[in-house]
Design a protein that fits this description.
Blueprint lengths: L2 H13 L2 H7 L7 E6 L6 E7 L2 H20 L2 H17 L1 H12 L3 H26 L2 E4 L6 E9 L2 E5 L10 H9 L3 E5 L5 H13 L7 E3 L4 H11 L2 E5 L2 H13 L3 E5 L4 E5 L5 H13 L9 E7 L3 H13 L19 H16 L3 E4 L15 E4 L6 H4 L6 E7 L2 H8 L7 E5 L3 H8 L6 E4 L4 H4 L13 E2 L4 H6 L2 E9 L12 H17 L4
Parallel strand pairs: 5-6, 5-8, 6-7, 8-9, 10-11, 10-15, 11-14, 13-14, 15-16
Antiparallel strand pairs: 1-2, 3-4, 4-18, 9-17, 12-13
Helix pairs in contact: 3-9, 4-6, 5-6, 5-8, 6-7, 11-12
């Protein structure tokens, strides 16, 4: 172990104390034990409770018992808890940023991006949820005589399976709308980043959330994940496409709904009229934020051939200036990968590309002297479809450069993937960029920004097409997916059927006249 690694181990021990772990795991079911580790050094961070299959059922029983009273709580009161969480999150951010970094290995600003996203979601739903959930009137079968109201009812208990890469945002950011909609939640975070999820849960309890309304169970994904799907009334999952298919299959077998955010092979397009300095700076963030372990990061740079050399030289210079290391403070640009498995994928993709003739413009090497899973940010050129890095999601600090001559070629290249999560377009001509964006088969497109413009717009939906998933987070869709629509229609004065002097024939004639008249009315 290097001196820097040894020092980071000492920091971890001071930041993640036994007292902190005990406070975060209070009330968490689990008679067995498991552990989480810091990727900065590979050392154990904490020992945690691991749930048996019976204990997973116990967690659902607790949640199911608590949910009716929570659903009966006025939505305005539920929303105020989210706003109090927002304020306390910002006040306590130093502690959670430390925990995120220690669990994920990411640099501090990338950890802060998570905090930003959760604060935005809490603020948005804290303000907008009462409007999203209010009963709505609709035109009845017979105006005036038929009054119709639509209500939103919570599913009951939501099973939420969260990944390791954004442990605050993909825990609290997704759980918040489910809770505000009136559901209870049983969540399985990745064990290696469970402290972050447990911290968020404890903060929610502190600001007024009943303890059993959000429960956490820890354990191996192949064991605990299917149990969540088996017990839940609705399932949310963020992770690989392969696992997402299995989650969807199991949920569908029970006629239970699901929302899935899965993989991506996102493209960033630089048009010939782009501001190249801004585009290179944006591309660097798009490719290397959170060490490239971001679902919406760019792994493909599509650049107009007339500006490709100038753009690439700018990008390479910026990439080589990135500061790599382990530090629980601002100033480091690139942290560690999460695990040996992630490091292996990154190195295999690079070596496969290199062996087949691709050029490494910068980077390309692990950095074990910094920590067990560090890797240099890498820019590849000359990547072809036969290479793994062309189609497979790398999920690390690796990006490939491609050149195009026409916008038709650019669109074809961008859409040449089974995924459809995020894209970025850089151009001085906003109208032209929007027209091109409409031709890209993905759920979000940023213009002159890498990913934050769409993701930070919490009032608008975000999600993937094709193999990138089902459903949306954020906006009204991100909350209403946690509910079911119920229509209540009240008939007044006259029934909808033959009655009194109106036999079938006369009633049908009356309906014919009414239907023709209603077609001419301007009714909502």
């Amino acid at each position: 172990m290097t001196t820097a690694q040894s020092a980071m181990g000492g920091v971890a021990a001071r930041k993640v104390t036994k007292e902190l772990v005990e406070s975060l795991t209070r009330g968490v079911v689990g008679s067995e034990r498991t552990a989480c580790h810091t990727p900065f050094t590979g050392e154990q961070l904490a020992e945690l409770p691991r749930a048996t299959p019976d204990e997973v059922g116990e967690a659902f029983a607790r949640a199911r018992a608590a949910q009716p009273a929570w659903a009966a709580t006025p939505v305005e009161r539920r929303a105020r808890i989210a706003l109090r969480f927002h304020d306390l999150l910002l006040r306590r951010q130093s502690q959670i940023l430390d925990i995120i970094q220690l669990e994920t290995g990411k640099n501090r600003f990338s950890a802060h991006e998570e905090l930003q996203a959760v604060a935005m979601a809490a603020r948005h739903y804290g303000r907008a949820a009462p409007g999203y959930l209010r009963p709505r009137r609709h035109l009845g079968a017979m105006p005036i005589l038929t009054q119709v109201r639509q209500h939103r009812r919570p599913h009951g208990v939501v099973g939420h399976i969260a990944p390791w890469n954004y442990p605050l945002e993909l825990a609290a950011g997704d759980v918040l709308p489910a809770l505000i909609a009136g559901n209870a939640v049983v969540m399985k975070p990745d064990t290696e980043t469970a402290l972050t999820a447990l911290w968020a849960r404890r903060l929610m309890i502190e600001v007024g959330l009943p303890e059993d309304v959000w429960t956490v169970v820890l354990g191996e994904g192949p064991v605990v994940g299917p149990l969540l799907v088996e017990h839940a009334d609705y399932v949310t999952f963020t992770g690989s496409t392969r696992t997402g298919r299995e989650v969807a299959r199991r949920a569908a077998g029970r006629l239970v709904g699901s929302s899935l955010e899965l993989g991506g092979k996102n493209a960033l397009l630089v048009l010939r009229d782009a501001n190249l300095d801004r585009a290179a700076e944006g591309a660097m963030r798009a490719c290397f934020s959170s060490t490239g372990q971001l679902c919406i990061s760019a792994e493909r740079l599509l650049v107009h051939e007339s500006v490709a050399d100038a753009f690439v030289s700018r990008l390479v210079a910026r990439t080589e200036a990135l500061r790599i290391g382990a530090d629980l403070d601002y100033g480091i640009d690139l942290g560690s990968l999460i695990s040996a498995a992630q490091l292996a994928t990154v190195t295999q993709h690079i070596e496969d590309a290199r062996e087949q003739g691709a050029t490494v413009l910068t980077g390309g090497r692990p950095r074990p002297e910094l920590g067990p899973y560090f890797h240099e940010p890498t820019v590849l050129d000359g990547v072809r479809p036969s290479m793994r890095v062309y189609h497979e999601e790398t999920f690390g600090p690796v990006v490939s450069v491609f050149r195009f001559g026409t916008e038709e070629e650019a669109v074809a290249l961008a859409n040449d993937t089974r995924y459809g999560l995020n894209a970025s377009v850089w151009s001085r001509d906003g109208r032209r960029a929007r027209q091109l964006a409409a031709r890209l088969r993905c759920g979000t497109v940023n213009i002159n920004e890498a990913y934050a413009a769409t993701y930070g717009s919490a009032g608008a939906p975000m999600g993937g097409m094709r193999d990138s998933g089902l459903g949306r987070r954020h906006g009204s869709e991100g909350l209403l997916k946690y509910t079911e629509a119920q229509t209540v229609a009240q008939q007044r004065l006259l029934p909808l059927g033959p009655t009194g002097p109106l036999d079938d024939r006369r009633y049908a004639s009356l309906l014919n006249v009414s239907l023709k008249a209603m077609k001419t009315l301007r009714l909502r």
